[in-house]
Design brief:
about 350 residues, mainly beta, 2 domains, four-stranded antiparallel sheet
Length: about 350
């Protein structure tokens, strides 16, 4: 997939517009800033479109007026390429990473995140890069921390915590003031690309699905991650405050989850709504063969897990046959029962712009 066509084309410049034209009238009571982050290569390259440099966009509404500003995140990779005047290789594992996947605010800081490095703090007004901000000294974390809507505590995790493509995972939490409230690690059944996880009022849940990492394969010139359904799926359920010692593993039907819509607790059970694939897109099997396109469409599914039950199985129901991705809920209902959720739906080619 190219990163330079149609709606995926990169923005070539940094700019700001302090008073945008408005058609109609903006409510003067609607004030705030919408931040957006995404891959945006500063130089043309033949690399995967996920590997573009992070660019932050800020859309601000204030007193009936609208403004816009954008800035690239000044990672070490970005600065090295700017000095070289061209794209450089090894983007994913370069020091400092890409900071191109997510952006969130917590404990008075605005953080740009990606899959395999520490968050980078961004000035929320100027969008200038402040620098790396490791969460509790935990090292690399993924792009989808979860914030408890009631307590303000933010939980995070990272995989390959014991070295490249290792099965070890780290987890942690910081309170609304930024103080560390939990920090630990555990060994998953195998190295998995765990892009997102689940947080409820009392539990953190880690889906270990067989999009598996192999250092041997990577060193032989293959892709670090590949689809290996024979490894099976596993769901790790950990009590918040219980540490890794409280982790309990459940067997999952083979499939893959990139993103979670929401999760909550009800009558002693965990309920989680996830966008589930039968097979993951974008990645091949371990032998290099592609996955089945007919099975690489995500559908909204609900998991029902009994953390104290007498079995390692749980139920799974498809809530909607419509193919889609990137689910969201009102952040005020995160980790709690909710009525409304949204996701981007596809009626044809999932990558049709």
């Amino acid at each position: 997939m190219t990163d330079d066509a149609d709606n995926y084309a990169p923005v070539a410049t940094e700019c700001e517009a302090r008073d945008l034209p408005v058609r109609g009238e903006l409510p003067r009571e609607l004030n705030g800033t919408l931040f957006r982050n995404g891959p945006n290569p500063q130089f043309p390259s033949g690399h995967h479109w996920f590997l573009g440099d992070g660019m932050i966009h800020a859309f601000t509404l204030r007193d009936g007026r609208a403004a816009y500003r954008n800035r690239w995140v000044r990672t070490p990779k970005f600065l090295a390429e700017r000095q070289a005047g061209r794209a450089l290789g090894g983007a994913l594992f370069r020091e400092g990473g890409l900071a191109n996947t997510n952006i969130l605010a917590h404990a008075g800081r605005l953080l740009a995140l990606e899959e395999a490095h520490a968050p980078i703090e961004i000035d929320p007004v100027s969008l200038e890069t402040i620098g790396p901000r490791p969460l509790g000294g935990a090292g690399p974390v993924t792009a989808h921390p979860k914030i408890d809507a009631e307590t303000g505590e933010m939980w995070f995790f990272g995989y390959s915590a014991g070295g490249p493509l290792s099965a070890a995972m780290r987890f942690g939490a910081v309170d609304r003031a930024g103080a560390v409230t939990a920090l630990g690690r555990f060994d998953a059944p195998y190295c998995s690309m765990v892009h997102d996880f689940i947080l409820t009022e009392r539990h953190a849940v880690f889906p270990i699905m067989p999009l598996a990492g192999s250092l041997v394969r990577a060193m032989a010139g293959g892709l670090p991650f590949a689809w290996q359904p024979e490894l099976g799926g596993h769901i790790g359920v950990m009590r918040r405050g219980g540490g890794a010692e409280s982790l309990r593993w459940f067997r999952a039907e083979t499939g893959y989850v990139f993103h979670v819509m929401n999760a909550w607790e009800e009558d002693g059970r965990l309920l989680a709504d996830v966008m589930r694939y039968e097979e993951p897109p974008l990645f091949p099997r371990a032998d290099g063969q592609p996955t089945d396109p007919a099975r690489t469409r995500a559908r909204l599914c609900r998991w029902r897990i009994d953390p104290e039950g007498g079995t390692d199985a749980f139920t799974q129901d498809v809530l909607d046959d419509l193919s889609g991705e990137f689910p969201r809920v009102d952040d005020r209902r995160a980790g709690r029962p909710y009525r409304h959720g949204w996701f981007v739906a596809s009626r044809g080619d999932p990558f049709d712009t």
